[in-house]
Each structure stands twice: as structure tokens, then as C-alpha cells.
Design brief:
Pfam families: Cupin_2 (PF07883). The chain crosses the membrane at residues 30-53. It comes from Cyphellophora attinorum. This protein is an alpha+beta fold and 224 residues long. It is built from 4 helices and 12 strands, in the order αβββββββββββααβα. The protein folds into 2 domains: 12-60; 65-218, Jelly Rolls, CATH 2.60.120.10. A hairpin with a 5-residue loop joins β7 and β8 (141-144).
């Protein structure tokens, strides 16, 4: 018994359909390849532009910024903010706001800002003149003399003062740098003649993820 195999007839319509599908697939492949080249080129151009822009920005204005006419004009020892910002060493513009650095002074026999803690940034204090007294919870105090460093992590209640007879100067870092804008706000409020009592100071701090702490919570002792 023999078996005969018959080939399926190929119609012109079927052949035409096969050819058209293959052509469409080739066209789609070409289009996708062109798009990939265009996108890759745009990414490279954008990356080069960003590098050049950042390099230009980093090379611009590397000198320290004198804030003698910038900080709050409020008189020393009044309104809860006696410390004066002498100089902004780094305002964050050259570090993508990763760190800010400023130099501040505290006149003799004056208190610092209301006690507070920071939700989003760490601080480091480095005393360069006199002695800065730091206050922590439960009435703890630490006197930082010239060359001493004090690190204040996030959520650590603190404040500082200068109960001594000599002016105190310290370098203060902020990581990230956004808290420097708090001092700018104080300067603006002072220039506008707005009263700056401890309560207003706490409200200003709140704009920069900083929470005020009462003296009772800190158990701070009154200084002479």
C-alpha cells in the first residue's frame, strides 16, 4: 500500500501576505534602531552639558561671602537670637546642598537660640575663639573651648550660649545645607522690624524641620 503526499497549493494571496509582513517587520526594526541612536545621542549630549554646567558653576565665585550687611540687625542680647552670622563659607550652591558652612559669633554674657532639635540635618560646631557652652537634656552642659568640636546628630535637643566674659566664635556645619536659609529668614524679619522673641524664633525654625524644646523639658539652669 502506497501513500501519496500532496503539497499544499500556494496561492498568490498567501505569498503576497508573507512578503508584506516581512517588509513591515524590517521597517519597524529600522525605525527602532534609528530611535535608539537618537535617544543615545541625546543622553550623551545631556550628560556632557551637565558636566560642563557643573564645572562652570563650581569655578564661579569661590571666595567667601561677607554677610556684614546680611545678618539680622537685631541688637545683641535681645529677642532670643544674639548670635551673629559673620560669614557664609559654603551656602550649599557648590555642594548640591549636601553641606553648608558658616562662621558665627556669640557676644559675652548672652544666650543662644531657644532649645531645639533638627529633624533633617546634622550639625558640627568647631570653636575658634573663647568658649561656647552647649546645653543638652536633663540640664547637661559641655563647655567647648578653642579647638573643641561638638557634633549634634538629628533629633538631639540642644542649644548653646556664652556665659563668659570673652566673645565666642565658632564654625558651624549643616548637613544638608538648607538650614542656612533659617538665618536668611531671621535677617529678613529683622530688616522688616518684626519682633523676634523666642516664640517667633521657634516658628521660624519650624520652616526648616526644626522643633523647639522648652527650657522645662531641657531642665536648663538660668545663667548669670
Amino acid at each position: 500500500m502506497s501513500t501519496t503526499k500532496t503539497a499544499m497549493p500556494t496561492t498568490p494571496e498567501a505569498t503576497a501576505t508573507t512578503i508584506n509582513s516581512s517588509t513591515a517587520h524590517d521597517r519597524l526594526t529600522i525605525i527602532l534602531s534609528i530611535l535608539a541612536v537618537v535617544i543615545t545621542t541625546l543622553v550623551i549630549i545631556t550628560a556632557i552639558f551637565c558636566v560642563l554646567w557643573r564645572r562652570k558653576r563650581n569655578n564661579h565665585n569661590h571666595h567667601h561671602r561677607d554677610l556684614s550687611g546680611f545678618h539680622s540687625p537685631i541688637e545683641t542680647g535681645q529677642n532670643g537670637i544674639p548670635q551673629q552670622m559673620k560669614d557664609v563659607i559654603e551656602d550649599g550652591s557648590r555642594t548640591d546642598m549636601r553641606i553648608g558652612v558658616a562662621e558665627l559669633t556669640i557676644p559675652p554674657r548672652t544666650s543662644g537660640p531657644p532649645a531645639h532639635w533638627h529633624e533633617m540635618h546634622d550639625e558640627v560646631f568647631f570653636t575658634t575663639k573663647g568658649t561656647v557652652r552647649f546645653h543638652a537634656l536633663d540640664g547637661q552642659t559641655i563647655d567647648a573651648k578653642v579647638g573643641d568640636t561638638m557634633t549634634v546628630p538629628t533629633r538631639s535637643p540642644h542649644t548653646f550660649s556664652n556665659p563668659f566674659d570673652e566673645e565666642a566664635v565658632f564654625i558651624n556645619t549643616y548637613t544638608p545645607a538648607h538650614y542656612i536659609n533659617y538665618f536668611k529668614m531671621l535677617a529678613t524679619m529683622g530688616a522688616q522690624g518684626k519682633p523676634m522673641n523666642p516664640e517667633m524664633n521657634r516658628k521660624a525654625m519650624a520652616y526648616f524641620a526644626t522643633i523647639g524644646v522648652s527650657d522645662d523639658e531641657m531642665k536648663m539652669k538660668k545663667e548669670p
